[in-house]
């Protein structure tokens, strides 16, 4: 090859986002390289330890100026050039960054690089040629799986799939230069295939199967179906027509309600750690060790979450039976991850050994944070905090996993109220992504900063809540369940109410949720709230008296059959319908027709109205915080954006 190879470095900190402004700069550099006769080839690489995280999502929320330069323009310039282009990839190469790399003739990456097209998570599809080039490179079936999952792939896996031409442990730019000495190899000039060893005649079958495997459009699958349509175009149409189809579908998705909802959540998540009065300069404490009091379901799950994050943890409990069960749960969890290929035997053993069980409270003396996860009783928890205050080292953070109780009452039992807060994990604590961080009246800014840093280490969506009954999530769910009960009192069977909310997108309805939590627990919480909570009838109390406590007794608002769905599938029970009718008659509640629309509206309004009050009271900081709580903690369908977004209360 005669001539030089010009290296163009993507440098737009922190993630080399391909914003309109940066694309204009990049396009200028490409045009200069293309016009220079001494340049034979161009290598694109990234600064800041990564290639590019893709487009700037902010650009999707604004009207695109007529003269805006987009990543499509940059790729079009590469496509029209007669010169060879190679992508030298290090770190993340995602979204539009990968689409840029796919437009190049060659792609080489370091072993630690990750490649992906995550647009589906924002209710979009790759809109800069990704749906057309990837099927031409690795086949339509593999491309669909790659894009529909939206996850990133390590470089070795991307090499196996054919996305990369080479993975090098050496200098990736030099490796790209060597490849750039070869001939042009534009992906756009290939014909898409369905898959290896699959005839083209099978394309309609593969497309039909793909449509069947994703949720219905109205149940969150709108973008998935459009993406499949775009890949079908790659198989059936010449490249320019496929690009035109992709562009039309992408523009349709950008304006769609599901994508706007998902983008709202994207931005809301990035606001979570921005807490007034807690400046970034506040020094967060390093959490190198942890303690948990209580070896029950919650305590064990919390300990596993710490161990998975590489933080050694001590579980203190004097109940031998609970400890034995916790040990089995811990080892069973890590061995399951080995069986799934997520951990090696060595990694599983190391994590399991990082959890120590003891009945000696002095074992907690060196912990940087101690989480109390005992029985939900204020008196019991007060005693625990008195004991912890005498055992924990100065500066240690003391946290309660309570879901409803007063954090200030617990802090008052200690001589360090500024180091006390709530860390409300959700069941199962090692899996559920939500963490409510509850600020007490005297919780210090440094303690909050430490808690948010810990949440990030544990890979949780950490949301700040003020100290009030139920905090954010459970306070709202209380109103939601009470409204569901009121609708049932008016003559609507619980099974129909649940079906309406499942149709909206919740994984389960309010009555099945109550059965999962335990009706005895729900009754105890309601009694604690007094007259405000008990409602107009005694249905819940009577169910508990009948020993119908929910899934744990195989009967609650629904029946459960061990032979059906492993005992977790709710079965409508006429006994409960009759009980509602009897109690409603006693209370003088008229039975009436209630439409599905009214059921859905009343239940969603119960959530958003309580959310509005929590904002007014300062318990929640932002509407988006509430939406994150409900999407990640309570199964609110993300394509609806959360209860506040759905109600239009997001300003």
Explain this structure:
- By secondary structure, the protein is α/β, with parallel strands linked by helices.
- It is 47% helix and 11% strand.
- The protein is built from 27 helices and 16 strands.
- The strands form 3 sheets. An 8-stranded mixed beta sheet has the order 11-10-9-12-13-14-15-16, sandwiched between helices. Strands 1-2-3-5-8 form a 5-stranded parallel beta sheet, sandwiched between helices. A 3-stranded mixed beta sheet has the order 4-6-7.
- Strand 13, helix 16 (407-411) and strand 14 form a beta-alpha-beta unit.
- Helix 9 (222-236) runs antiparallel to helix 10 (239-254) and helix 13 (320-339) runs antiparallel to helix 14 (345-353).
- The longest helix has 21 residues, at 596-616.
- It starts with a strand and ends in a 5-residue tail after the last helix.
- The mean pLDDT is 93.
The average pLDDT is 93
What is the structural class? alpha/beta
Major sheet description:
8 strands, mixed
Helicity level: 40-55%
Number of helices: 27
| Strand order in the largest sheet | 11-10-9-12-13-14-15-16
Assembly state (oligomeric): single chain
* Residue fraction in strands: 5-15%
Principal-axis shape equals globular
| Radius of gyration over C-alpha positions, nearest whole angstrom | 28 Å
How many E strands?
16
Distance between the termini: 58 Å
Are there runs of 5+ residues with pLDDT below 50, and where?
A: none
């Amino acid at each position: 090859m005669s001539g030089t190879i010009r290296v163009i470095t993507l440098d737009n900190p922190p993630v080399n986002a391909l914003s309109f402004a940066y694309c204009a700069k990049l396009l200028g550099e490409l045009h200069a390289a293309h016009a220079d006769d001494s340049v034979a080839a161009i290598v694109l690489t990234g600064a800041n330890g990564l290639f590019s995280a893709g487009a700037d999502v902010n650009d999707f929320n604004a009207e695109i100026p007529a003269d805006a330069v987009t990543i499509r323009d940059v790729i079009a310039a590469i496509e029209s050039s007669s010169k060879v282009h190679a992508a030298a990839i290090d770190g993340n190469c995602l979204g539009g960054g990968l689409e840029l790399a796919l437009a190049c003739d060659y792609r080489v990456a370091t072993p630690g690089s990750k490649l992906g097209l995550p647009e589906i998570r924002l209710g979009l599809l790759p809109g800069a040629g990704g749906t057309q080039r990837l099927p031409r490179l690795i086949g339509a079936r593999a491309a669909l799986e790659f894009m529909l999952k939206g996850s990133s792939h390590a470089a070795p896996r991307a090499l196996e799939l054919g996305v990369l031409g080479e993975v090098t442990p050496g200098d990736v730019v030099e490796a790209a230069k060597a490849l750039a000495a070869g001939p042009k190899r534009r992906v756009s000039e290939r014909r898409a295939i369905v898959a290896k060893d699959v005839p083209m005649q099978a394309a309609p079958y593969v497309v039909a199967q793909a449509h069947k495997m994703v949720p219905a459009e109205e149940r969150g699958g709108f973008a998935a179906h459009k993406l499949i349509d775009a890949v079908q175009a790659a198989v059936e149409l010449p490249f320019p027509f496929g690009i035109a189809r992709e562009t039309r579908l992408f523009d349709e998705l950008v304006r769609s309600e599901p994508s706007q909802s998902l983008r709202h959540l994207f931005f809301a998540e990035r606001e979570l750690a921005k807490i007034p009065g807690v400046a970034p300069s506040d020094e967060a404490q390093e959490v190198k060790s942890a303690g948990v009091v209580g070896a029950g379901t919650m305590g064990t799950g919390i300990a596993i979450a710490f161990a998975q994050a590489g933080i050694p943890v001590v579980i203190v409990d004097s109940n031998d039976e609970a400890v034995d069960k916790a040990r089995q749960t811990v080892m069973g969890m890590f061995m399951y991850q080995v069986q799934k290929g997520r951990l090696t035997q060595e990694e599983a053993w190391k994590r399991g050994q990082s959890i120590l069980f003891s009945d000696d409270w002095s074992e907690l003396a060196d912990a940087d944070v101690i989480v109390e996860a005992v029985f939900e009783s204020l008196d019991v928890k007060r005693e625990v905090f008195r004991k912890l205050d005498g055992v924990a080292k100065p500066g240690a953070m003391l946290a309660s996993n309570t879901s409803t109780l007063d954090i200030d009452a617990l802090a008052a039992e200690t001589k360090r109220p500024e180091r006390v807060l709530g860390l409300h994990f959700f069941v199962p604590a090692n899996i559920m992504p939500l963490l409510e961080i509850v600020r007490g009246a005297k919780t210090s800014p440094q303690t909050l900063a430490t808690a948010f840093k810990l949440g990030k280490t544990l890979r949780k969506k950490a949301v700040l809540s003020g100290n009030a009954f139920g905090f954010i999530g459970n306070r709202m769910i209380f109103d939601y369940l009470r409204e569901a009960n009121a609708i049932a009192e008016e003559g609507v069977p619980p099974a129909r109410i649940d079906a309406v909310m499942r149709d909206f997108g919740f994984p389960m309805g309010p009555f099945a949720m109550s059965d999962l939590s335990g009706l005895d627990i729900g009754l105890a919480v309601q009694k604690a709230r007094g007259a405000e909570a008990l409602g107009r009838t005694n249905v819940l109390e009577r169910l508990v008296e009948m020993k119908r406590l929910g899934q744990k007794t195989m009967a609650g608002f629904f029946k459960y059959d061990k032979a059906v769905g492993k005992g977790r599938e709710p079965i409508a029970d006429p006994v409960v319908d009759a009980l509602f009718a009897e109690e409603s008659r006693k209370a003088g509640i008229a039975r009436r027709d209630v439409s599905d629309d009214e059921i859905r509206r009343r239940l969603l309004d119960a959530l958003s109205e309580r959310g509005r009050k929590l904002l007014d009271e300062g318990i929640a900081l932002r509407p988006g915080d509430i939406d994150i709580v409900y999407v990640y903690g309570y199964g609110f369908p993300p394509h609806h954006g959360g209860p506040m977004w759905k109600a239009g209360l997001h300003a």
